[in-house]
Amino acid sequence: MPEPRETAVYTHGHHESVLRSHTWRTAANSAAFLLPSLKPHMKILDIGCGPGTITADLAELVPGGQVTGVDRVPQILEQARTTAAGRGLTNIDFAVADVHALDYPDDTFCVVHAHQVLQHVGDPVRALREMRRVVRPGGLVAVRDADYAAMTWYPASAGLDDWLDLYRRVARANGGEPDAGRRLKAWALRAGLTDVTASSGTWTFATPGERAWWSGLWADRTLASAYADRARLGGHAGEEELRAVAGAWREWGEQEDGWFSVLHGEILCRKGA
Q1: C-alpha triplet 103, 108, 110: angle, nearest 5°
Q2: 75 vs 176: CA distance, rounded Å
Q3: Which of 85, 211, 259, 260 shows the smallest number of beta carbons within 10 Å?
Q4: What is the pLDDT of residues 120-131, one digit of tens each?
């Protein structure tokens, strides 16, 4: 019987407005829960690496080790390779992979890391089983995912309420789970991981620059990304509704007292012998 493959559709796509967010991510702002466990010699697999900014940071943190970044989309790996080359990193490589069926032997890596991945996959429990399979005994599976229903902002905005409802409907229609953060521990336990430390972390956008950046990328994403296309084609929103949501984002971004917080669930799982 063939191995099950990825069944969900990646909601965001790789429009510039999406990459604007992805290239902002660093190990410090997106993987702080993992960093104290890293050692210079470690071999790391970074799943769903995208443009490779977190991957490159991890490679710098394990100078005597090796980091492999994998993603489903070959084109985005070219950007990741450019990121690594621009930083002069030689202990890093990239490959196309599906997290449901990783092409690596059992017990290969010291750490398997995935940031904002499980919310987009068709079978997150199987994905975690695969991550557990390829990590060595005593090694770590480290996962972090946003939880959309737990996102909160000020001041109140009916337009952003509409955005949240729309995004969650589109993501679920694509086969994903936008409220993944709260489910990570449960998924890990179902996948057979027993030594699981659960935590949470946030991104906060409150300064004028942060508000302008965050609101601008979501306004653009609402009108021009793969997410916007899927909202239209799936009958979730028409052009007028999308423009209203984009306008609500820009209006929020202009509020002097505006504040937005993104909650993430985190799990750090040590594989038993």
Answers
A1: 130
A2: 22
A3: 85
A4: 999 999 999 999
